[in-house]
Amino acid sequence: MLYLIPTESYTRLRGSGVGELYFGEGLSTVNVAITNMRGPLADLRVRRALSLALDRSGFVQVGLGGAGTPTGALTTRAAWADAPERTRKRAFEGMRPAAPDIARAEALVKEAGATGKTLTVATSSIGQDVSLLATAVQAAGSRIGLDIRLKSIAPNAFTALFTDPGARKGIDMFPLTYYDSITDPLDVLTNFRTGSYLNFAGHSDKTYDELVDRAGAVDDPKRRLAIEAEAHRRAARSLLWIPVAEWPTALFLNKRITGAPTTISYMYQPWAAEVGAAK
How many CB atoms sit inside 10 A of residue 274's CB? Predict the structure, then answer.
């Protein structure tokens, strides 16, 4: 089932005499994907420590040019537009990102016996969302006692990390920008099911799998979203992806063009049919 986000929902960020740049609602998130659960990251305390140490606000300002929102959630809030308010609150409960807590993160690393352990994060010049996030992860790790090293990957080879286990060999994490293919949180949540090809770490949680299966078998949106809220919370606790930011849809418009959508709805509707010259 497909739900389109209203195209009127946007914020005008800055303008010029020629046109305006708009940032509308999107379904994209920027994350750090965990790819190796055989080393220090097998311990949830280490994954949690990295999440606590990340400077999400700093990354949004530098890596995304200020066009984003720090998040501790695996989905965007726009993906829950069809959910009742109580369900939305339940889905995001306890996921509001805070300022980096270095002391607590360092204590978790020590508790896990991971101080001084080496981790490798992939980086690439393919985009700032990749290269600057990898650097942010390295900086966070160095502050809490981890030795995080960068492995540079050519832009034309970076996408292989998504599909080829061999390309991920020797890599513990990589920056991952993901957008929903439908405006339903289940699109993201299925990625953490046992055997999913985007479950890079090979994690398996029978209870989680049952939640996803139950949600997929329910037609009623309100009932389905209530189940997805529980799955969302459980997936967030596992930190198979460390959420960093929501990334809006960007569109530049001038006065000669009308009708173009300013949200990610452009991915799912025949938007060109609505574009026309302004009168």
Answer: 12
- Could you give the dihedral angle defined by the CA atoms of residues 155, 157, 161 and 167, in that order, rounded to the nearest 10 degrees? -140
Structure tokens at 27: 């379904």
pLDDT of residue 18: 65
Packing angle, helices 128-143 and 102-111, rounded to 10: 70
Structure-token match 């650097």, residue found? 135
Closest CA to 22 of 31, 38, 11: 11
- Beta strand spans in 81-223 (E): 118-123, 147-152, 173-179
Tokens of 122: 């992939």
Consecutive 10-residue runs of the chain (279 residues): their mean pLDDT? 33 54 87 95 98 97 92 94 95 92 98 98 94 97 98 95 94 94 90 95 96 96 97 96 92 78 79 73
Sign of the four-CA dihedral 72, 76, 81, 83:
negative
Give phi and psi for 14, each to the nearest 5: -155, 160
Give the C-alpha separation, 95 to 97, whole Å.
6
Specify the amino acid at residue 110: K
What span, in angstroms and rounded, lies between the C-alpha atoms of 267 and 256? 22
**CATH class of segment(s) 17-277:** alpha beta
For the chain, which residues make up each domain, given as ranges? 17-277
Phi, psi (5° rounding) for residue 51? -65, -40
